Amino acid sequence: MISVQTHDFDMATEYHALLTNTDSTINSADGAVVTFVGLVRDYNQGNHVQGLTLEHYPGMTEKALEDIVINARAKWLLGKVRVIHRVGQLNLSDQIVFVGVTSKHREAAFEAAQFIMDFLKNRAPFWKKENTDQGTRWVEAEVKDELAQQRWD
Amino acid sequence: MIKVLFFAQLRESLNCAELRIELNDPKFASILKSAFTLEQLREQLANTDDTWQLNMQNGKLLMAVNQTIVNGEHILQDGDEVAFFPPVTGG
User: Fold this and answer.
1) CA pair distance A77, A11, nearest whole angstrom
2) Phi-psi region for residue A19, left (φ > 0), alpha (ψ -120 to 50) or beta?
3) Distance, CA of A112 to CA of A149 (rounded, Å)
4) Summary mean pLDDT of chain B
5) Chain B residues close to A63, C-beta within 8 Å
6) A12, A49, A144, A148: most buried by Cβ count inside 10 Å?
7) How close B33 gets to chain A, by Cα (Å)?
8) What are phi and psi of A47, to 5 degrees?
9) Best residue in A40, A52, A54, A57 to probe B by mutation, most B CBs within 10 Å?
10) CA-based nearest residue to A40, from B86, B89, B26
C-alpha cells in the first residue's frame, strides 16, 4: 500500500499492520520484517538545514511508487509492502519516508527495502527545498543515488 | 489541447506551473503536419524567450507524458498531460 501525505506516521502502527493480514488475521507466513525510516537531517550539501518543504507531482508520485513496488515484487517473493512519503513543510528530525517489507526470509526483505528506496530516490517525483542559515535552496540530485539504483540493473 | 506542467526550481525559474496548448495554435502549424514529438514541444517552449531558452535546454530535465517518464521521441496526442521537471530529490 502506498500513501503520499502531509501528516506524520507512527512506526509501531505500521509495524503492527505489516504483521496483520487484510482480513485482520495474523500474518504468520512471513518470518522477516524490514523497515526503513528517512528523517530530516541538520546538515546537507554544505549547509546547516533548519527544515524543508517537499513538493511533489500529485498522481504521478503514487503511480511511480506503485511501479517500483510492482518491480520489487517481480524480483523477490514478498508478503506485505508499505510505502509512505510525506509532503509539505517538515522540521528537523521529522520523519519523511517509511518503507516496510515482509517476506518468508530476511534476504528478500532486506534487498527489496533497499531496492524500493534506491528507485524512490531516482524515479519518484518529489523535490526538497531546504531552509538553511543561508536562505532557501533546492536540493541537488546526487550521483551516489543514481549509482545506488544502477546496482540493480 | 495538451496540458503542460512544470515543477520545483523549473516552475520557479519560469514563474509558470501550468500551460495549456491548443494544437490548432498557428505557431504549431508547421510541425503539426507530421507527428508532434515531446522534443519538438520542448524546443517550441524554449523559443519563448531567453529565460525559457536557458531553462528548457537544461540537459538534466526529466520529461513525463501521462505521468510516466519518457524520452524526447515520444509522440504527443491531443489530451496528453506533459510534465517537465528537474532530477528528483525525495526520500
Assistant:
1) 23
2) alpha
3) 12
4) 91
5) 67-68
6) A49
7) 31
8) -130, 145
9) A57
10) B89
Listed in sequence order, the residues at least 6 apart from A114 whose beta carbon sits closer than 8 Å to its beta carbon are: none
What's the burial of A70, exposed, middle or buried (CB within 10 Å: 0-12/13-18/19+)? Answer: exposed
Asked whether the beta carbons of B87 and B49 are under 8 A apart, the reply is no
CA A145 to chain centroid, in Å, comes to 14
CA–CA gap between residue A30 and residue A42 (Å, rounded):
36
Place of cell 539504483: A149
> Which 8-state DSSP code applies to residue A111?
H
B80 φ, ψ to 5°? -65, 150
pLDDT band at B30; cut points 50, 70, 90: low
Supply the DSSP string of B59-75, one letter for each residue.
Answer: TT-EEEETTEE--TTPB
* This prediction's pTM: 0.93
Across the beta sheet with B68-69, what order do the strands follow? B18-21, B2-6, B81-85, B62-65, B68-69
ipTM confidence score: 0.92
User: Between the CA of residue A65 and those of A18, A70, A112, B47, B85, what are the distances in Å?
Assistant: 18, 9, 13, 34, 17
Q: How far A108 CA sits from the closest chain B CA (Å)?
A: 21
For the stretch A47-76, pLDDT in tens is 899 999 999 999 999 999 999 999 999 999
pLDDT for B27 equals 66
